[in-house]
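Hi, here's the filled form for the chain we discussed.

Project: internal
Contact: R.S.
Residues: 420
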Amino acid sequence: MGQAIYLRGGAAEVGNLQGELQKVFLQERAARYEKMMHAAGVSKSTFEPRLAAFENCLLAAAPHWLEEFQAVANAAGLELWQLLLWNLDLPEFKKVNYPAAPLTLKNLETARAGDDGIVNPYEAQGTDPAMGEGECTTFFALGDSTTAGETLLHKNRDSRDELQNIYIKHIDGFRRFVGSSDLGNLGTAHLHSEELFAGANNTGSPLIEKQYQENALNDCHILRYIGENCAALDEVVPCLEELQSRQLIGGGGFGLGMILILADAARGLIIEATSRQLHHQWFEEDGITVRANHFEFPEMQAYCNGVLPGSETRAERARQLLEPLDGLMDIATCGEISRDRENAPHAICRNPSDGLGTVTVSTSTSTISARDERRCQTHFRNGHPGYCPPVILSPGDIVSDSDLASGAHCEHWRGFRGWI
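And the returned structure, exactly as it came back:
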């Protein structure tokens, strides 16, 4: 592990430290994006209207994010537009192969030395561009459905094969949160708020026409917005309705809805949303609730245009595994489920060798306790859950680890991947 760092203070101060830590990895990602743009026959000028619209969205919703990421760009030797481009869902890249972040040479040599049916993790990174959106599997367990009687919220994040980071961030004037995402992401894909609720974002169903707002906040951005602005779960739905009324909500991918799954010590909350509509449901009874990547509320079916491949399969498999565990759920069991490969390539745990354009890049299991705030913590796997050791962060802490925040920890462990 690295050194103790503090991602707290003014937005520019926090951004400058992030840029210094992540510089090498951000520059590498920028170089890959430049190649993608060349392959797609596009340039910065192609995206200038989108970038301008997105900047206006950020100025309306979270201007401190722009200040933070301008500082990130300056410290990393990049331009702000390069980072903002990674935060947009761009149809221009739909037919372009997305190259994964590179793996380290020494681990490639190790992988190639084996001949016991292990796939070389580098050569396994070929993708199907048609399957390029993020897909995740999330569930929460309330009350006596867990062995400790404390809420658990677990998420498997399937996304582009990029380096991930984990951090505790506290921008002046906003709430502190534990977060994790790919480097260069303005938002977070895992959330544990200092207000002691946890959350996850899943891509939602493909949407009918006029239900998706381009160049707006995606589901990762929304999850961070909730973490920084909401004092309790009761504030989340009004918060989203206000953003929706200002036409600032996008989706979980181009033309896709979003699903937000949140829980505190007593309740769970699921929100299915398009850019124009949303429906939510509270869960207060003991039990386990699952979501994958399709809308399930009857009230949202009129806005759907089909189901992402494999989403129903993963949700059904998760429910199959979880049903006999009601009353027995614990952190170790969540970890076991996170590695489940049944129904591959549409498994809960996704490998690059599945060829679907996304991979399980991280997992989190949050404990939310009403008895002792010190028991509120999140167990992360900062990479593929079959090959990364767990790391634990608490929303009560203020210190981050430099290797976790920079991407160096993820870069090291993802190099050990190999799939049978």
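Let me know if anything looks off before we file it.
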